[in-house]
Amino acid sequence: MKKILMYEYGDIDVLKEENTEIPSPTAGTLQIKIVSTSVNDPDIAIRKFGPFPTMPKEMRPVLPHMAGEDFAGIVTAVGDGVQHYQVGDHAMGITLSGTTAEYIILPEMALLYKVPDELELKAVGALGVAVSTAWAAVKNVQLHKGQTVLIHGGAGGVGSYAIQFAKNAGAYVITTAGSNSREYLTELGADEVIDYKTEDFTRKVKEVDAVINLTGQDTLDRSYQIVKNGGFLTSTNGIPDQEKALSCNINANYTIGMVSPEDMAKVFAMVKEGSLKININKIYPFTLDAVKQAQLDFEQGPNRGKRLIVMES
Fold first, then answer.
1. Nearest residue to 232 via CA among 254, 252, 205, 206
2. Protein fold of 2-127+280-310
3. How much helix, strand and coil, in percent to the nearest 5, is found in the chain?
4. Measured between alpha carbons, how far is residue 60 from residues 10, 52, 64, 71, 184 in Å?
5. Which of 2, 86, 135, 237 is the most buried if burial means most Cβ atoms within 10 Å?
6. For 177-218, how does the pLDDT look when each residue is reduced to its tens digit (9 = 90+)?
7. ∠ at Cα 113 (110, 114), nearest 5°?
């Protein structure tokens, strides 16, 4: 089988293609044939710089490291003792051991979710990290109907889902993005779009119930002042300053994209009924050159939705 690895960290050319035997499942594990995977922020950061300084030791990648974190695929073999999956099941999930391979082996107890047969499996590969992070972020700010939320970085993969989750919760949604994404974000449900390149959001927004920061530290630092007393601020990029949050009388937390099977079932139901759109920016074939290009395109942006890598049929 084909897989893409890196033996060192650095520029795009550290990605190398290898051909190996298809791995077999052992007790308690599944063999999954990958249908699709996508590009996420950690793919770029880890490839360029290695493990994040804040990563727990048990989560740090070890070289050689396989690119990719999320996937959709088909269970093709199961090891002894597997109880909840059988051959032919559709599955999606998240793993730190890499997903740019034709087959992977995962423990049954990994971050795996059974995908309803009626959903297009290829497209589900665009959920994973982005939808988990967006769901967790919206949950962390405890949105309900009639509230106002500002989502920084609405046009990307995570932002595209966060806008929809917030809108489905009944919130008034403001987002920051480039002006060329305005129509796209309005179609997703954004009520207001602030051009971060030409407009200062702190002058346009005051007293919001919640802020979801999907961008950088500078944006996070300037967001405390616009949240109303008792409101919420969460960030996926930069850890909030608890002392600053306390001085502003707001609740602040860091979002990690963890979603329970019950919540993911709700996500699948939204996709099925059409209240959650899977937005795919571009589809790439599973070749070394195309995977490199997907990462380069992700870095350069703009990213309106996900960049999906699809294996051969």
1. 252
2. Quinone Oxidoreductase; Chain A, domain 1 (3.90.180)
3. 30, 30, 40
4. 16, 8, 12, 19, 36
5. 135
6. 998 899 999 999 999 999 999 999 999 999 999 999 999 999
7. 130
Residue 237 pLDDT level (bands cut at 50, 70, 90): confident
Structure tokens at 206: 């005051």
The pLDDT assigned to 2 comes to: 97
Whether the predicted pLDDT of 144 surpasses 60: yes
DSSP, residue by residue, 160-204: HHHHHHHHHTT-EEEEEE-GGGHHHHHHHT-SEEEETTT--HHHH
Q: Does domain 130-254 have CATH number 3.30.479.30?
A: no
Copy the structure tokens of residue 91. 């599955």
First to last CA, the chain: 14
DSSP string, 107-128: ETTSEEEEPPTTS-HHHHTTTH
Structure tokens at 166: 């917030």
**What are the sequence ranges of the domains in the chain?**
2-127+280-310, 130-254
Q: Does the pLDDT at position 313 exceed 60?
A: no
Q: What is the Cα–Cα distance from 133 to 155, expressed in whole angstroms?
A: 14
